[in-house]
Amino acid sequence: MDDTGSKGNFQKLVFKIAKATLITAATGVVWLALWFLTSIFMTSYPQYSEHFAVMAWVMLFFTFAIIISEETIYKYIFMIIRAFFLIFYIAYATNYGLLYLSFENYTLNIEFIPLLTIMILANLIDVARRLLQAIEFASQSPKD
């Protein structure tokens, strides 16, 4: 019994994991730098750190999962789930388009429902695009 095929598959898997880890680490560095830059300005929004951390960790998970599942239908499933996550989490984290920021004796109410609507529509378009890509991927004949 020849096990060169299993060695080749194992090497491909190790390469995919290493590639996904490196890309996810680089993406994590970008998220960390973004957090350092934005946390300075968001001191009046107390939940910012928690919301940003959840968003960053989930996006890092999806980055890793999408890269690991390249050349499979699961890649498109992860992309669709990521788009739905972004829709719901952005709506939740921004209190459905209404932000209340408190400064010493002042309260600033920011209403950006139209901007939230645009972000939701963009993610819905992304869902439709990924769904079409998944259908196209599934309809292709397997490569030998």
Describe this structure in words.
It is a single chain. The protein is mainly alpha-helical and 144 residues long. It contains four helices and two strands; from the N terminus they run αααββα. The chain has helices spanning 4-39, 48-68, 74-93, 113-139, and strands spanning 98-103, 106-111. Strands 1-2 form a two-stranded antiparallel sheet. β1 (98-103) and β2 (106-111) form a beta hairpin. The longest helix is centred in the first third of the chain and has 36 residues, at 4-39. The protein is elongated, with a radius of gyration of 20 Å. It starts with a helix and ends in a 5-residue tail after the last helix. The model has no long low-confidence stretch (mean pLDDT 90).
Mass-distribution shape: elongated
Whole-Å distance between the termini? Answer: 21 Å
**Helix content range of the residues, please?**
over 70%
Query: How many domains make up the 3D coordinates?
Result: 1
Strand content is 5-15%
Strand order of the largest sheet: 1-2
Mean pLDDT: 90
Per DSSP E runs of 2 or more residues, the count of β-strands stands at 2
Strand and helix map with partners:
Layout (H helix, E strand, L loop, with lengths): L3 H36 L8 H21 L5 H20 L4 E6 L2 E6 L1 H27 L5
Key descriptive features of the protein:
single chain, 144 residues, mainly alpha
Briefly say what this structure is:
The chain has 144 residues and is mainly α. It is 72% helix and 8% strand.
